[in-house]
Amino acid sequence: MDKKTIRDINVSGKKVLVRVDYNVPLDKNGKITDDTRIRATLPTIEYLLEKNAAVVLVSHLGRPKGAPVPEYSLSPVAKRLAELLGKEVLFAGDCVGPQAEAKVGELKADQVLLLENLRFHSEEEKNNAEFAAKLASLAEVYVNDAFGVSHRAHASVEGITKYLPAVAGMLMEKEINFLGQAVSSPVHPYVAIIGGAKVSDKIGVIGNLLTKVDTLIIGGGMANTFLAAQGYAAGKSLVEEDKLELARSLIADAKKRGVSLLLPTDVVVADKFAAEADSKVVKVDEIPQEWMALDIGPDTSKAYAAALVDAKLIVWNGPMGVFEMDTFAKGTEAVAHAVAASKAVSVVGGGDSIAAIEKVGVQKNISHISTGGGASLEFLEGKVLPGIAAINDK
Ligand code: ADP
Ligand code: MG
Prior knowledge:
Strand content: 15-25%
Number of domains: 2
CATH superfamily of the largest domain: Phosphoglycerate kinase, N-terminal domain
Mean pLDDT: 96
CATH topology of the largest domain: Rossmann fold
Bound molecules: adenosine-5'-diphosphate, magnesium ion
Order of helices and strands: EHHEHEHEHHEEHEHEHHEEEEHEHEHEHH
Shape: elongated
């Protein structure tokens, strides 16, 4: 990696400000329902503590729209982090100003302090220079470990790097290494699986992947647009009529580049979009007029799994069907098992795809589960993410 990491600088005895992504889901009682994002930052925090740094953590949570909102306080996160670290985590009720300055001032080496939600200040999302300078004044070194927001030029992600040495944390490093390999130096055979609801969400990714992969597998709702583009009657399936031309040009592009583009040959259709719908498996040229395709069929699942067997690199983003309903989850589950069984380097991104991997319980057999949905998509599109660009080069 050509970006500096925490291992490339001396942090001993220094105040280190770490931008993390603690945008965790909370229930209505303010209880954290999934602490994956907190766990993901432990390697960086533990490394810094081991090196005798004083660790100041900053994050956003939810969309408080630039003013303090009690439901979006990070204080429950401080408690959960303390449990996970087995160590006291101090908390300051603001991320800048006298309270933050006092708590950071008292902070000693080998201590951890979490500051309140950055987005309680509208300046954060505006990348306000004065606000970024205030945050920077709290520390001597800046670490970006918030891959999930690195596609946003916010004050704590981009602006702050103008005032402090800026390096990547361990989570950020892992993301850049795995996604970077998929974008810049893929091993072959390289197979990408793209699914989800709509083609329009992932046009950029599909276009860029077509220039790199050997095989592109399409599933989910977006497959219906590709099927319709080839002249199949898709019934009441989700089809983006305004993207038919685009789907045709992507199919042509795949052909021109010698990329094997796999589309469903059979689908699970339902008479309504509901868990208790009537459903059956049909060939793609037999979709009944009043029915909708909500999953790939068993023949397609087998073909997709077979296409993954020899892969050396697999990138997966987007489920194969409406996996939230068990009746339409089989295709996504089959693909999850096939990705997990493969010896390839496997990279999975996207909130719903990760949920599917967890539902099947094969997380351990995936090389890298990306923590950033939008950020990993933009990375795979080949875009330069402002938060990564702003990290100092080696
Ligand atoms: P990710 O979060 O992994 O990037 P997306 O958000 O793009 O994935 O897509 C996931 C959504 O796509 C799920 O809510 C799923 O129900 C929906 N979906 C998948 N297949 C279909 C389909 N055939 N028809 C309608 N919606 C679908
Ligand atoms: Mg999603």
